[in-house]
Amino acid sequence: MKLTSKGRYAVMALADLAQFDSINPVSLRDISLRQGISLDYLEQIFLKLKKNQIVKSIRGTHGGYVLSKKPNEIKLNNIFYAVDEKVKTVQCKKESKKGCNGKATKCVTHNLWDELETHINSFFEKKSLEDLLKENIERRI
Amino acid sequence: MKLTSKGRYAVMALADLAQFDSINPVSLRDISLRQGISLDYLEQIFLKLKKNQIVKSIRGTHGGYVLSKKPNEIKLNNIFYAVDEKVKTVQCKKESKKGCNGKATKCVTHNLWDELETHINSFFEKKSLEDLLKENIERRI
DNA sequence: ACATTCCTGACTAAATTGGTCAAGTATAGA
DNA sequence: TCTATACTTGACCAATTTAGTCAGGAATGT
Hints:
CATH class of chain A: Mainly Alpha
Oligomer: homodimer
CATH superfamily of chain A: Winged helix-like DNA-binding domain superfamily/Winged helix DNA-binding domain
Radius of gyration of chain A: 19 Å
Number of domains of chain A: 1
Number of strands of chain A: 4
Mean pLDDT of chain A: 85
Largest sheet of chain A: 2 strands, antiparallel
Helix content of chain A: 40-55%
CATH topology of chain A: Arc Repressor Mutant, subunit A
Order of helices and strands of chain A: EHHHEEHEHH
Largest interface: A-B, 46 and 46 residues
Shape of chain A: globular
């Protein structure tokens, strides 16, 4: 099981945005410099965040991105979902001759991953961007 | 985030073992046939399970593998740990100039993955091989 | 006009996954 | 003792995924 950088970058970038977008849109260039993430890679990530209505874009000279919701309304699972960082559980294939095929002999792991998915999602559903920022401020003190 | 087949196979194989090892050791060949898992791949997996004292091996003609503990003493996180199916979170590199470097400006995701790890492990720690088998029997009824 | 910034698709090196292949060693039973 | 069975170990490999890079374009403020 693995959590990739893409999801981490998305969270970092959005946290950055949440701190700086109060008045002006924030350019990816700024985020790239502050967070040390490749600009080209950020563009890919923000394309997905935009498609999922997590951010809005403003083009042009002083353009950039702005959160489209309040930080407390953006849950981490929204972010991960947006950048395709899903909890992919390797399911038993239905075509398989042995094991899982709808018969009485279902393989023992058949429902296990579903349970785990629910468990992990509940963790991410509870946590918002705002929570994350608060925790960070607390740790600094 | 992804759960790989290796962990799933390990769980399936051990569940198989738990059902059949009451008297005689179970050969990987049998498990391979019953569960539809490649024999060569099973060998790699059982090598690790053995190193982690989850199974014992008996060589020779009627040899095979046996659980080295009772099914209720083998938790799923023991299994996943044994086959290197850890919750690998992509941490912020310490060498990175920006962000996480021990200074006041820790990146916001710094402790997030640790929390998640704890959360996931608590799920696997609670669940034993025996629980899994019970659930499976219940579902059949 | 032109610099800035978003937008999009194509490409790629490295790592991981899910195996296969080959060559052992140990043991039980005939 | 011979032999089949089954564990043991290491090397190898194709397909996929990841974490980017590269190149060009389109919109917009100054």
